[in-house]
What does this fold into?
Amino acid sequence: MTDHPAIELIRHDRVAELRLCRPELLNRFDMQLHRELEYMLGELGRDAEVLAVVLSSTGRVFSAGGDTDVMLECAGDMAKRLDLIDEGRRLFRAVADFPKPLVVALSANSYGLGTSLVLAADAIVSCPGVEFSDPHVVMALVAGDGGCVSWPTAMGMIRAKRHLLTGDPLSADDAFRMGVVTDMEATADAVLPAALALAARIAALPPLAVQLTKRALNKVMMARTGEVLDLGFYLEGITFGSADLQEAVSAFKGKRAPRWEGR
It folds into this structure.
């Protein structure tokens, strides 16, 4: 852990809140956040006093996804690329196979890996105006960091293809109508209290029944994870080395239209 953590742990009786707390970095999923979140989930999974967990955030976005500087570093460094891939594989599995109920308080937009993890949760509380997306293809990357697992599992293959192949966002309103967002509140300020209340309701139920039901449900997610997660990450690793990624980052930073070469 560092002197400036990426996650704050707040305890609410039998509910633990994990709050992404680097709004100045848009709660990006860099190596620090990968490691802290994986560690925290492991600790809370073993903590008998914790019966449910809420994942929340601070700032104007839930998470902006990956770090473009790290993407460029990985493009020229195979060892660093493999480290990032392995960190991501472990983190997604830590969320997908977390043994206790996990509720997301989604009060701001989410992108990329953040969205992959949100969609692997057990309940999502949100509000009008929020969008979530996976813009990997827009950045010339394969949507491989869990998106090919959690999007189809949450909403069906054809709808997942529509968003993963375009990077187009999905609004919380539409997601609620589709059954992807489970609970809608009127305002962003109401999202976290509602998520905590839902987690507290679950925590008040018989813990063995809840946790063993969760373990059975995890088998479904982990079966999909075993089918495609590693392949997705390795294919994404290939695109880290592409000229198109270099162009995507350059165009993004320069606020201009990219010019793709397909190599």
